[in-house]
């Protein structure tokens, strides 16, 4: 069977990594890349460098990785759908809900595989947490907390922290719990002099009653990527920078020292840091999309799921502007 012919448009920060993975992915030939600014980072590996998506389509591709700025996702995505080319589009799916709806509908109507590059889903720590939650190891899930902070990324100019970073936490929270957001209340801050928000704090409710809170900013010298999942049997802590998953079990040994019991609250049980396989999330993401295009069983972030994430992100922004809780 011939290899799939893949293309890549957008050769910026993420595009460079996509080129590296696609250039070495079994069963796939990266036949060309595109960027109106050219291959300034020298990632094409001698492959043709095109100026726009139309030239890349004309080269004859089966699917395309879209890593252009968010404001161009709709234009590029619709061109691919119109040409009958499968696509995976970097997160967020689009700059707003109407554009995301158009993209999801276009790929569905053409019977094409459309996916969104929410790479955090493929982090080994979260993959393990998801599997263990599904098997009931934590029991009922009470709360999901995420912290995502670090320095300002110079690569971002067209969206704020909610759509750039916050969409990671919205997607992974809905996916890891297999619940949807039903309400959000958020506060934002503008500290860098840009037109977009630099900081957001969100409190959300999920469809089964789980409470979530998300602290996201790009104003901190400390880089942190942590997801804390608390349930009836204990707590999972997923550190997606190190891809470590740690389980803090509720204890079964009664604390008879009253003062200590009052201080500690829920009794302490075993603490386990799981030894897990740690493949590169970006490679796993591409392997799954390749398999989906081939009609095999695969775990991709669908465009419908990407659309839901954009809706929640916009609800967070609206909540912050109006000072109200937004129902979804």
UniProtKB/TrEMBL annotation:
UniProt cross-references to InterPro entries, sorted A to Z: Gfo/Idh/MocA-like_OxRdtase_C (IPR004104), Gfo/Idh/MocA-like_OxRdtase_N (IPR000683), Gfo/Idh/MocA_Oxidoreductases (IPR051450), NAD(P)-bd_dom_sf (IPR036291)
Recorded GO MF terms: nucleotide binding
Location of the Gfo/Idh/MocA-like oxidoreductase N-terminal domain: 5-118
Domain of life: Bacteria
The Gfo/Idh/MocA-like oxidoreductase C-terminal domain, residue ranges: 131-328
Family under the similarity heading: Belongs to the Gfo/Idh/MocA family.
Protein name per its UniProtKB record: Putative dehydrogenase
Species per Swiss-Prot/TrEMBL record: Pedococcus badiiscoriae
